[in-house]
């Protein structure tokens, strides 16, 4: 049985462990317009073992200015919902301490056709990477760390 919380998922910043992909997908399925959808697409960003510069990463910390990040995430979702064939889209970014391969971000979209769904997922990822107030600290094998916006 789904709880009211599962049905009311909002896009935004959540603490690690507060939400999972299945809950977000269930929330998308509860959209009254879901019968117009022919597909649900997901993207899950995870912690990888190397930085952009090739340094060995052992863990990561994500922090956010929640109010500003939530505002940006909601603006992105509202803009993308206006695109042809998009039924619903949710972006959920986690914050906290993460080990390698742990989930960091989820993007879930329902679309009338797969083409629009794949495209809106790509656009959503590109936009959140540039526009939301989230910072990550990569902790490296050599004992150093670096904050990245």
Structural summary, described in words:
32% of the residues lie in helices and 36% in strands. The chain has helices spanning 4-7, 21-29, 66-81, 114-131, and strands spanning 12-15, 39-46, 57-64, 86-99, 103-111, 134-140, 145-148. A hairpin with a 4-residue loop joins strand 6 and strand 7. It starts with a helix and ends with a strand. The model is unreliable at 1-6 (pLDDT under 50).
Strand content: 35-45%
* Average of the residue pLDDT scores: 94
Judged by helices, strands and strand pairing, the structural class is alpha+beta
**Strand segment count:** 7
Query: Total helix count?
Result: 4
Shape: elongated
Largest sheet: 7 strands, mixed
CATH class: Alpha Beta
In short:
With 149 residues, this protein is an alpha+beta fold. The chain is built from 4 helices and 7 strands.
Provide the fold topology.
Elements: H1 4-7, E1 12-15, H2 21-29, E2 39-46, E3 57-64, H3 66-81, E4 86-99, E5 103-111, H4 114-131, E6 134-140, E7 145-148
Parallel strand pairs: 1-4
Antiparallel strand pairs: 2-5, 3-4, 3-6, 4-5, 6-7
Helix pairs in contact: 3-4
Give the tags:
149 residues, alpha+beta, Aldehyde Oxidoreductase, domain 3, 4 helices, disordered N terminus
């Amino acid at each position: 049985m789904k709880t009211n919380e599962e049905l009311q998922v909002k896009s935004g910043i959540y603490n690690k462990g507060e939400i999972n992909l299945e809950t977000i997908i269930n929330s998308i399925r509860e959209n009254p317009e879901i019968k117009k959808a022919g597909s649900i697409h997901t993207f899950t960003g995870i912690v990888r073992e190397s930085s952009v510069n090739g340094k060995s990463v052992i863990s990561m910390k994500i922090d956010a200015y929640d109010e500003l990040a939530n505002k940006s995430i909601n603006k992105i979702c509202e803009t993308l919902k206006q695109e042809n064939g998009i039924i619903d889209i949710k972006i959920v970014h986690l914050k906290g301490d993460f080990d390698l391969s742990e989930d960091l971000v989820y993007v879930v979209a329902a679309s009338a056709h797969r083409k629009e769904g794949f495209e809106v997922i790509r656009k959503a990822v590109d936009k959140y990477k540039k526009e939301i107030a989230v910072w990550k600290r990569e902790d490296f094998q050599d004992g150093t760390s670096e904050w990245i916006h």
